[in-house]
Amino acid sequence: MAGLWFEEFKDGMVFNHEWTRTITEADNMWFSLLTMNTQPLHIDAHYSAKSEWGKPLVNSLLTLGLMVGMSVNDTTFCTTLANLGMTNVKFPKPLFQGDTVRVRTTVLNKRESKSRPKEGIVTLFHETFNQHGEMVASCERQALMRKRPVDQAQA
């Protein structure tokens, strides 16, 4: 499914994305090491076993990436030009290897671009939940979205 054009977004729209993803040890290890994050809480099982968590934590930037990525097919696939920012990023509960996540997106608002007449800015609120329904992450994302091309306008 292609993403939505700027005009198709409506304030308050909610997307319960069908994708789910079980995060593996390899996902967490590879992401942490590829991004040069050598925090032992993510990559060292013996070290993290002695922490208050008792096991490795999923790298929060992997969680953030999944949260946005899992929303793309329903919202911005091929219709976004850029992410302009992510704000109010929160991780209220820990996420662990073996957890399965799902994502919900709510359209907070949209506005015409002041400098780019063929585009607009949509603010999305993403929430990620684990397999127990607990929110493990959230953020607001501002996306620069394409308007529907004139030659594709619906009659």
Description:
The longest helix is centred in the N-terminal third of the chain and has 10 residues. The protein is an alpha+beta fold and about 160 residues long. The protein is built from five helices and five strands; from the N terminus they run βαααααββββ. Strand 4 and strand 5 form a beta hairpin. Strands 1-3-4-5-2 form a five-stranded antiparallel sheet. It is elongated and about 60 Å long.
Summarize the structure.
This protein is α+β, with helices and mostly antiparallel strands and 155 residues long.
Total beta-strand segments: 5
Low-confidence parts:
none
Shape: elongated
Task: Tell me the fraction of residues in β-strands, as a range.
Answer: 35-45%
Instruction: Report the radius of gyration as a whole number of Å.
Output: 18 Å
Q: Helix content range of the residues, please?
A: 10-25%
Given the helix and strand composition, which structural class is it? alpha+beta
Biggest β-sheet strands, sense, barrel:
5 strands, antiparallel
Sheet with the most strands: spatial strand order: 1-3-4-5-2
Mean pLDDT: 95
- How far the N terminus sits from the C terminus, by CA atoms, comes to 21 Å
N-to-C order of helices and strands: EHHHHHEEEE
Number of distinct helices: 5
Keywords:
155 residues; single chain; 5 helices; alpha+beta; 36% strand
Topology:
Elements: E1 14-22, H1 25-34, H2 40-43, H3 45-49, H4 60-69, H5 72-75, E2 80-90, E3 100-112, E4 119-129, E5 135-146
